[in-house]
């Protein structure tokens, strides 16, 4: 009898060990991959990031930690300030949470914060951050300040998903870099963490309430890492944002991946950088648009609208003088919007000067022309708004389309 009990106990222990620990409590968006697959694909020399959640889960599995240990770890990290992040203080706080002493030492030897802020350029609308990655490369992130009429303040973090970008949009500074590299999910999440820490340390009013993937890179070209980052952003044990407070922006890199996002994270907002509803005009502004026709892009948006419960995409439309601000362009945009299955909302963005755009002679339209384009859309029943606020940050080269790192 005793030997049978021991055998059963051993078998149960083996079964438990073979099932990796996943921090499912508070999880809103599941991982697409097993933690072992993700850990091997995101392998980095040197310390791993605390925000590589699959790697942390694998560590917990291998070291017999439980879910409450991981919840405690992230409770410490998310409430930390600069002094709390010192190793000795982390050791004390984890020990107080009943972490086994041996595992604490191994954990803090294996994981750390791997990114750092190298430079901050403040502007009237927030600040641009130059962030150094563990490989020494630089990316840029932006903190955008919003103040409501009642005086309440909140912040949006604009994060990068790649070092540079392969799309080479004719108006965008980032495209001049080409694609230097893909970011891991942890490197995406650390950008948000660093900006949150900045808000705390500077004792700024309000807190980060939104995250937008509108920094350097095309998010859908780094879909696996972006999806894993969405898991961390919305996970209640980490950043805890609701999915509707997160926006993934794309130039329409892949209709298939727009559908995948609709299937796997339907409550996350989708923003499409359209810039023209005329195929030939769009190809001038976005050379990669040659690989996907405007009609196929519209079909992908309709699929996303159905999966998201009728909540359509935001259409980003950069207005450039004499290029895409004509009445003909307004009619084409109106037709594209009115054909959609779900509701769409058009953000009209006055062009922000860049060296890339200078090569093409691009200019910002006069305010009268911008307002006339806006009026044409509204008169036809299209919901639209001129986002004058996207000019904020021009003084720090941190406005829409201006992100570039010359030392990446």
From TrEMBL:
InterPro entries: Aldolase_TIM, Methyltransferase_A, rRNA_lsu_MTrfase_RlmN/Cfr, rSAM, rSAM_sf. Residues 151-395 form the Radical SAM core domain. One of its GO terms (biological process) is methylation. Its cofactor is [4Fe-4S] cluster. GO terms for molecular function: 4 iron, 4 sulfur cluster binding; metal ion binding; methyltransferase activity. Its main location: cytoplasm. It is found in: Cytoplasm. It holds the Pfam family Radical_SAM. The keyword Iron applies. CDD domains: Radical_SAM (cd01335). Keywords: 4Fe-4S, Cytoplasm, Iron, Iron-sulfur, Metal-binding, Methyltransferase, S-adenosyl-L-methionine, Signal, Transferase. One of its GO terms (cellular component) is cytoplasm. It comes from the Eukaryota. SUPFAM superfamilies: Radical SAM enzymes. The keyword Heme does not apply. Residues 1-20 form the signal peptide. This is Radical SAM core domain-containing protein. It comes from Cyclotella atomus. The lineage of its organism: Eukaryota, Sar, Stramenopiles, Ochrophyta, Bacillariophyta.
């Amino acid at each position: 009898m005793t030997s049978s009990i021991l055998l059963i106990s051993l078998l149960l222990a083996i079964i438990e060990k073979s099932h990796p620990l996943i921090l499912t409590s508070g999880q809103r968006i599941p991982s697409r991959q097993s933690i072992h697959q993700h850990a091997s694909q995101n392998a980095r020399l040197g310390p791993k990031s605390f925000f590589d959640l699959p790697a942390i889960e694998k560590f917990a599995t291998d070291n017999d930690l439980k879910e409450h240990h991981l919840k405690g770890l992230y409770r410490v990290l998310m409430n930390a300030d600069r002094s709390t992040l010192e190793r000795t203080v982390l050791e004390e706080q984890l020990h107080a949470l009943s972490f086994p002493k041996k595992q604490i030492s191994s954990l803090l030897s294996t994981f750390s914060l791997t990114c750092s802020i190298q430079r901050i350029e403040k502007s009237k609308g927030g600040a641009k951050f130059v962030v150094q990655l563990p490989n020494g490369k630089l990316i840029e992130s932006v903190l955008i300040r919003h103040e409501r009429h009642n005086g309440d303040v909140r912040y949006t973090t604009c994060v990068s998903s790649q070092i540079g970008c392969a799309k080479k949009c004719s108006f965008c500074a980032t495209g001049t870099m080409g694609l230097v590299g893909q970011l891991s999910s942890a490197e995406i999440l650390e950008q948000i963490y660093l900006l949150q820490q900045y808000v705390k340390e500077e004792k700024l009013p309000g807190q980060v309430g939104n995250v937008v993937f509108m920094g350097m890179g095309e998010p859908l070209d780094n879909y696996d890492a972006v999806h894993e980052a969405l898991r961390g952003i919305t996970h209640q044990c980490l950043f805890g944002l609701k999915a509707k407070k997160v926006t993934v922006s794309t130039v329409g890199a892949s209709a298939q991946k727009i559908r995948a996002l609709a299937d796997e994270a339907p409550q996350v907002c989708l923003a499409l950088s359209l810039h023209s509803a005329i195929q030939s005009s769009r190809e001038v502004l976005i050379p990669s648009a040659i690989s996907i026709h405007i009609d196929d892009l519209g079909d992908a948006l309709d699929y996303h609208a159905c999966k998201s419960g009728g909540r359509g995409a935001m259409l980003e439309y950069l207005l450039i003088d004499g290029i895409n601000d004509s009445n003909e362009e307004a009619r084409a945009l109106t037709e594209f919007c009115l054909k959609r299955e779900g509701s769409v909302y058009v953000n009209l963005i006055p062009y922000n000067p860049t060296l890339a755009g200078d090569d093409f002679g691009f200019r910002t339209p006069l305010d009268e022309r911008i307002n006339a384009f806006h009026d044409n859309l509204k008169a036809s029943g299209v919901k639209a708004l001129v986002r004058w606020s996207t000019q904020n940050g021009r003084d720090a080269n941190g406005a829409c389309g201006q992100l570039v790192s010359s030392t990446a």
